[in-house]
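Board notes (copied after class):
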Amino acid sequence: MLVKSSLLALALCTLVAVSAYAEELDPTISRVPHDQRAAAQAMKNPVPKTPENIAKGKTIFEGNGSCHNCHGLNGKGDGQAAKFLNPSPRNFANPEFHKNRTDGEMYWVIKNGSKGPNGTGIPTGMLALIGTQITDEEAWYVILYERSFEGKK
């Protein structure tokens, strides 16, 4: 019994340590595979950037999209589910991310999920959301809202 308890305690400590030290993957590296990147980068957000559309994106981010569960209400990758993910979810407040990602690349990840840098490698917890939780159009509103986190502390 003591051995089982010790092993359980060790496993829990390891889980906590891994989640406490999980880091965001390099935001300068695309999560879109090389062979699909040009097409993703060429995609433009058809939804105009207005306060109303950003507010609509917030409603989706915090509602049906369930984005806040991983990315947090402030978009910093610190949502309730984030503590169980390694690597940690994307921090949308990081200006480096926005400087290096197009709206089309963000859309691609929302549509297809993420298998890590360049679409290969370390899998992430980001699942495909278009068609399961949100529509194509709703994804573009979410992107406007995610962009609004840039540089916020």
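Comment from the instructor: The longest helix spans residues 2-21. Residues 86 and 114 are 13 Å apart (CA to CA).
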